[in-house]
Amino acid sequence: MKPAAPNAEPSPLAAVSSPDHNAERLAALKKLFPDLFTNEGRLNVDEFKKVVDPALVSETERYDFRWYGKTHSKREAFTPSRAALVYDPARSVNPDKAGGNMIIEGENLEVLKLLTSAYRERIKCIYIDPPYNTGNDFVYSDNFADGEKPYWEHTGVTEEGVKVDTNTESDGRFHSNWLSMMHSRLLASRYLLRRDGVVFVSIDDKEVQNLRRVMDEVFGDENFIAQMVWEGAFKNDARQIGVNHEYVVVYGRDRLALPPEWSVAKDAVEPVLTEVRRLREVFGEDYEGASRALGAWFQNNKATPSFAHRRFRYIDKRGNYKEDDPTAPGGRKFDLVNPRSGKILPLRANRGWAFDQETFNRLVDEDRISFVTEETIMVRRYLHETDRMTPQSVVYQPARSASERLSKLMGAMVFDFPKDENVIRQLIEMSSSPDSLVLDFFGGSGTTGHAVMDLNKTDHGKRQFILVQLPELTAPDSSAHKAGYKRISDITIERNKRVIARFQKEAEGLLPNDPQRQFADGLGFKVFKLAKSAFPRVEFAPDPDKTEDENVELLKQYIRDKEATFHMQFEKDKVVDELLLKQGFMLDYTLARRPEFTKNEVFLAKDAFKESLICLDAKIESTTVDYLKNHTEHFFVCLELALDTTTKWNLKHSLGEKLKAV
Predict the structure, then answer these.
(1) Which SS3 state, helix, strand or coil, does residue 378 take?
(2) Cα(189)–Cα(208) distance, integer angstroms
(3) Using CA atoms, how far apart are residues 44 and 74, in angstroms rounded to an integer?
C-alpha cells in the first residue's frame, strides 16, 4: 500500500480509527530521504538495508537507471571526509569585506561533505553547469585521498597534470560513469539546501532524461518545478537539425515550502523610468508635452531592449502608463455602473470585467479609468507598478555574447562556452531573497559569483556566493594557459576579482554615502583550498608476532610520535578553520581574544548561528579550568592532547556536552 503523502487528504476512515502512525512515519522518512523510495512512493527496502549495511543486499547493477556503480556513488556521497579547507590569503580579494563570499579550489564532492557540518540547510539556491557527457569532456572521479596521485597532480604538487578521467562512447559504462558522478554530488548537495531551497542544473539533450531520473530519486519527483529551455544562437554547421538549445532542470528541496509565485524584473525598464523622471522635471504638469517627448525617445531607441516597453508612452502625475481594455474572456459576467453618470457599462459578447464594482469605483477616484465613450472605458497600467513578470520556461540568450563579454573582461579568450551571467542572475533573482546564500559547485569561469554581485548591485541585496572549482590544469596549447591561467580555478578567481575591480572603477568619484559607492566598497571574497587534514590520522596496526603488552606499548609510542609530529607542524591560524568548520561554524566566523583568560590564549568564535570558546594551546591551565567551571554558558573547544585526566574530568563535570575535545 502506498504511504500517504505528508499533506494528503484524510482517509474517510480517519474519523473512526486511530491515527495511522506507520503511514506518518513513512511519510516523514520520505520527506527526509526521498532517495530511499521508488518513483511510485513506496519504500525501497533494499535501499534502506544499504544504509544499515551494504552487505545485506546482493544485486546486479546495470544501466537502466539501476546503473552500474549506483551503490558505490551513494556510499561515496555519505562517506565522511577527513580533508580540510585551508585559507589562501594571497589569492583572496578584500577578505575583510568578504562576508560569506568564498571561492574554494578543490574536488567538489569532498568540499560538499566538508561544508555539511556548518552549511546544512543554509543554502537557498544552487546553480550548477556540470560537464556534459559528450564523450571527451572532463569527468570528475571520487578519488581525493591522502597519497592518491590523480587529484594531487591537478593541484600542481607533481610536475605532470593529467585529466582525472575521460568518458568515451567505447566505454561500456558511458552513461553510468556520468550518472555516478552526478548522483553522489546531488545527494551531498541536497543536505545543504534549505527546506525552501531550489536547485538549477544546466544540461543538454544527451543526458537530460537521465538527469531527470536521478533528480527524481534524490529530490523526489513531487519537487520537480520545471524543465526550462535555454535557446542560444543557431549553429551554422548543423546538417539535419540545428540544435540551438539546452535545458535548465529545476527542483525544490520541498516544493510546498516555496512561495506560490515567482517573479523577475522586466528587462530594460530602468532606462525608461530614468527618462520619465527627466521629462517630468522638464515639462512639469504639461503631461501632453512630456508624453510626446517620451514617444520620440522610444523612436530614437528602437535598437535597445527598452523599446519593448513603448506602449507605456503616456505620462501623468503618477508616471508613465499604457491604456488597456479592462475586459477579459472568462471575466466577471455582470455590468458595471459608472459612478459619475449612474449609467451601466455593457459588456461585449463573450467578455467579462477584470474587476468588480468596488475596485472600479476606486480606480475612477484615482483617475486610472479613461472614459473613451459613455460605453467604452480603458484602464491605466503604470510601468513602475508592472515592472516584474512571471519567469518564462524559454529563455533566449546567445552564448556568443557571454563569450565576448568574458573575453573583454579577462583580456583574452580564456574559457570555452561560459554561461551567461544575465541568465544566471535571473535564475537567482526568481528563487532567492536579498540575503540568500548561493552555491555553485561546478564553478567554471565563475559566472555565478559574477551574477550574484550584478544582482546585488541592482536590488541592493546582500546575497553571498560559494563557488567550488577543481584545480584542473588547462591545456598547454590553450589561450587560457598562454594568458597565464594554469588551472581552471585560476580563471574562476581572476574573473570575480576583475568584476569587483570594475564595480569599484565605476564608483570612483561618487560620494561616500552613495549606494553604488557603498556597494562597490563592500565587495570581496576569500579563497580556500582543499588540503590534507592538519590532524594526524591513527593508522596503527598491532604486530601479530608480539605480545599484547608489547603491542600496547607500541601503540603508546605511536601516539607519542604522532603528537610530537603534530606539535612540530602545528600552525594555529591554519588549524582553526578546519577545526571550526567541522564543529559547525560557517567560514565567515569572527574570532575575538577573551582577556579574562590570562594563562591560555582563548578566543570567542562566532558566526550568524552559534558561538563557542576555543583554545588551541598545548595545555589547558588550571586557572582556565577554574573560570570555565563557574561560567558554563559557552561551548569550549580544545585539543584532546591538551587535557590530562584530571583536567578533562573537571571540565566534563562542569560543561558536560559543551566540552568539545578534538
Answers:
(1) strand
(2) 19
(3) 14
Task: Return the C-alpha torsion angle 331, 334, 340, 341, nearest 10.
Answer: 130
Higher per-residue confidence, 58 vs 263: 263
CA–CA gap between residue 50 and residue 566 (Å, rounded): 37
Q: Which of 213, 247, 33 is nearest to 128 (CA)?
A: 247
Say whether 52 sits in a helix, a strand or coil: helix
Report how far residue 337's alpha carbon sits from residue 345's, in angstroms, rounded to the nearest whole number: 6
570 Cβ contact partners less than 8 Å away, ≥ 6 residues apart:
534, 616
Cell numbers for 525: 571574497
What is the predicted pLDDT for the residue at 63? 41
Sign, CA dihedral 217-221-222-227, equals positive
Distance CA 458, CA 460 (A): 6
Give the CA radius of gyration of the chain: 30
* pLDDT higher than threshold 60 for residue 18: no
Closest CA to 650 of 616, 617, 622: 622
Compute the C-alpha angle 37/39/45, nearest 5°: 30
Of 534 and 234, the structure prediction assigns the larger pLDDT to 534
Question: What is the mean pLDDT of the segment spanning 132-150?
Answer: 57
**CA pair distance 245, 265, nearest whole angstrom:** 23
Structure confidence at residue 533 (pLDDT) = 83
- Please report which residue ranges of 345-478 form alpha helices under DSSP H: 357-365, 399-410, 421-431, 447-459
Instruction: Please give the mean pLDDT across all residues of the chain.
Output: 86
Angle subtended at Cα 196 by Cα 181 and Cα 268, rounded to the nearest 5 degrees = 95
Cα dihedral 457→91→447→197 (10° resolution)? -80
Please write down the HEC assignment for all residues of 414-451. CCCCCCCHHHHHHHHHHHCCCCCEEEECCCCCCHHHHH
Which amino acid would we find at residue 572? K
Write down how long the chain is: 662
Q: Determine the pLDDT at residue 266.
A: 87
Per-residue CA distances from 260 to 225, 387, 390, 431 (Å):
12, 19, 11, 11
- pLDDT-derived band at 422, boundaries 50, 70, 90: very high
Closest to 453 in 3D by CA, of 99, 193, 112: 99
Cite the residue boundaries of each domain of the chain with CATH code 3.40.50.150: 63-264+391-528
The H helix count followed by the E strand count for the chain is 20, 25
pLDDT tens, residue by residue, 97-117: 999 999 999 999 999 999 999
pTM of the model as a whole: 0.80
Angstrom distance (rounded) from CA 487 to CA 469: 10
Residue with cell 540568450: 397
Return the CATH number of the domain spanning residue range 63-264+391-528.
Answer: 3.40.50.150
Q: Which three cell numbers stand for residue 370?
A: 479613461
Alpha-carbon span 360 to 358, nearest angstrom: 5
